[in-house]
Design brief:
Blueprint lengths: L5 H7 L6 H10 L5 E16 L2 E15 L1 H9 L6 E3 L4 E15 L17 E27 L4 E12 L2 E13 L4 E8 L4 E4 L4 E12 L1 H6 L3 E9 L3 E4 L3 E11 L2 E10 L11 E8 L3 E2 L2 E2 L2 E8 L3 E8 L2 E2 L4
Antiparallel strand pairs: 1-2, 2-4, 3-5, 4-5, 5-6, 5-7, 6-10, 7-8, 7-9, 8-13, 9-12, 10-11, 13-14, 14-15, 15-18, 16-17, 17-20, 18-19
Length: 324
């Protein structure tokens, strides 16, 4: 998220909030509102054989933006004759799975030991991916307000959205790598070339509206103060594109079992899930743990830039050298 630190969460979660704490929370949220992003990537498996590879993985992500006025209202309550606006409310979630097959003019460098790598100085790799859409929801536009007067309360909100419950598409990747030496190799990768998912299973474009009309004690007792409706405006299929990336990286093999990487990534799609801000990352991978026909690579890394600004991560793997 773009507002709160883990330390703030630990201090304020479940605690009584005094005026100083409320001010700190509200001042942490920029005028553009709270932005939150969560994602999960599940790698099913990767199979490499000579110049070919086959992989299956799943992706799920959720992002939303909540206007600052909403937090002001929750923390301090409503002031008389003040209009609280919820314009700019955004939400987007997508989940899909992918099966890809790729071909390299040399052995797959990233997974090959030093003594198995291609002798070619320049290699080309292309991948085509089938994309199976599971679920998609996005608010295209949303507005809302709340106004309290000495006599009654008024509130109204509306949003346009689109929803997909299944679809399919195709993704394309192109990677070029050049070996400066046996230990140093540079990569240029074009990820998600013209890639996207056509949502054809029960697609829905619609309009949501609600209103709290002149609430006072009498109307609350009568129960006629709220009205809401949902209107489906279209059931035509639609297409969502995956973010297009250009990545430039360099791999340096420190020794036969240790490799380092420096990567610069630039996205060309600005959305709730992606940012045009570049990301610089560095990782180090150790492949010295092995037993019989198995290797257990360990990788750690840090990144700077993007929406997250700073990130740290690690991965553990199992590599089957060959099947009997």
């Amino acid at each position: 998220n773009n507002s709160f630190t883990l330390n703030q969460y630990n201090r304020f979660s479940g605690a009584f909030l005094d005026e100083q704490a409320k001010n700190e929370i509200l001042n942490s949220i920029p005028r553009t509102g709270l932005w939150f992003n969560a994602g999960a990537n599940l790698t099913g498996f990767d199979i490499f054989y000579n110049n070919f590879s086959f992989s299956v993985f799943g992706v799920g992500s959720l992002a939303f933006r909540v206007p600052r006025d909403v937090f002001d209202l929750v923390l301090y309550g409503n002031e008389l004759n003040r209009c609280y606006e919820a314009n700019g409310l955004k939400a987007k979630t997508i989940s899909y799975w992918s099966a890809s097959i790729s071909y390299s003019s040399g052995n797959h460098y990233r997974n090959s030991p030093a003594n198995e790598r291609s002798k070619r100085r320049i290699n080309f790799e292309g991948a085509i991916r089938y994309l199976g859409g599971i679920y998609y929801f996005e608010t295209l536009e949303a507005h809302g307000y709340l106004l309290t007067t000495p006599s009654f309360l008024l509130s109204e909100g509306n949003a346009t959205y689109r929803l997909g419950r299944g679809g399919k598409g195709v993704g394309l990747d192109l990677i070029i790598n050049y070996a400066f030496s046996s230990n140093l190799r540079a990569f240029l990768a074009l990820i998600n070339l013209n890639s996207g998912i056509n949502w054809t299973e029960n697609p829905e474009n619609g309009y949501l509206n609600f209103a709290l009309d002149s609430i006072n004690w009498y109307r609350v007792r009568q129960g006629d103060f709220f009205r809401g409706n949902k209107t489906v405006t279209s059931t035509e299929p639609f297409r969502s594109t995956l973010p297009f990336y250009i990545m430039v990286s360099a791999d340096y093999r420190i020794n036969p079992v240790t490799k380092s990487k420096l990567l610069l990534s630039q996205s060309f799609n600005e959305s709730q899930l992606t940012s045009r801000a570049p990301i610089l990352a560095t990782t180090i991978e150790f492949q010295g743990l092995s037993a019989k026909s198995y290797r257990f690579p360990i990788e750690i890394g840090v990144s700077l830039g993007g929406k997250e600004k700073f990130g740290i991560g690690y991965s553990l793997g199992l590599v089957i050298k060959k099947f009997s």
